[in-house]
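Quick question about two entries, pasted in order.
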Amino acid sequence: MQKTFKPNRVTVSLYSATNVIMGLRNIGCVFCLIATVAYAMDTTTPSSTSDAATTEDTKGRILSLPDVEKCKTRPFNFTLNGHGYFYSGWVDAHKSDKVDWLEARNTCREYCMDLVSLETPTENEMVEKFLEDEDLPYIWTSGRLCNFKGCDRDDLQPATVNGWFWSGSGVKMAPTNSTPPGWSYQPWSYTGHKSQFADKDVAQPDNAEFDINGSVEACMGLLNDIYEDGVKWHDIACYHTKPFICEDSDQLLEFMRTSKPDEDIPEPPEDDEDDESEVRRFRRRPFSG
């Protein structure tokens, strides 16, 4: 049974979102997801004595609400199990995008999508193969460390083990020091930056950059063999810039379809019927919009 991540207490003021929530009781979980990353306004991320550019600067930044026109014309590069996805580098409007984690997430949200959440081996292996086939060094995912207000709950401690969740879906990740239930392998890398200075492998997440410049590695990316470890999950400081993959958000799509019932917001195309493998191939689907 999947656990939905909800911090104890968070203040949210997204374009008077409080008023919107009151009228959307049946889809209130949409704003659970907004609340989970309200760190964009009030964060407990430790400050750094080094240059401000090396820390996660979220002052004055908030999560974007979906845009109806973008939701109607959202790109589909490929599909899996009823969800549409797009890679920023395959969409003309975002072809050159290399952005920080919050900007990547906000871009996706405008399309009624969110950064990809790798909740199953099937989805993880599909995206892993995409990075390998396209020879991409890295992408952002929606993985996020709970290190902001409301994250002091006992069940989230220690945060490096029990405090990770998928911000795109609100689903809590399995403890980082164990293989997730239903998986036959550990998706977090067994190595990383700290291994270069130790006499043994130091597994992810390792928060390595905090020791260098005080930046907390609170966001999760998929790295392609950067540490000769294959395509693996790594914790990364959120200010770094990367391309990204967006995935349909059930919550944001439901919100938009409910709030704009006269608008035609399409479902993604069916999965390729001629692909018999469990892991679907990414295919460049025609897109105009």
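Here is the second entry:
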Amino acid sequence: MAYCTQTDLIAHFGQKRLEQLLIDTEGDTLASADPTAYLTEAIAVVDDEIDGALAPHYNVPLSTVPAEVRGLAVLGVFTHLALRRMETYTELDRTLDERYQKALAELRSGKRRIADLTISQGLPVAVGSLDPHSSRPYTEGSTDPDTINSGLTDPLDRY
């Protein structure tokens, strides 16, 4: 299932802008053989990119498409189509592409989460719990002076 459709693209960017992006690079007409061939290819490429970014944390492909993923797919398809037409590539197109690439990187790294999805992969293995003031794991009753407030002793006892 595609993460966005032609209808989504028209709703976000308008029919005229979509047609401008689908114009054959050889001339000023829509691609004669199949004007949606570029669109179909761009949607498939973006779906693969999004799946690649989500795969470390979620089961892909997604069976239902959350609004955030749909919006990211629309942005990705738009930037892929805009990159085809470098002679009309604008600063806005560049900004949208940077935003798209940043979102993919954040999804890949786990910095960005999709609210409607359940994380199913790539979770760290718990070894005790984490101190709220440090990223170092500790176990209850630890006497290691490097751990901060294991919850069993007063942190000021060391002073």
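Reply: The longest helix spans residues 91-109. The CA atoms of residues 27 and 133 lie 61 Å apart. Hope that helps.
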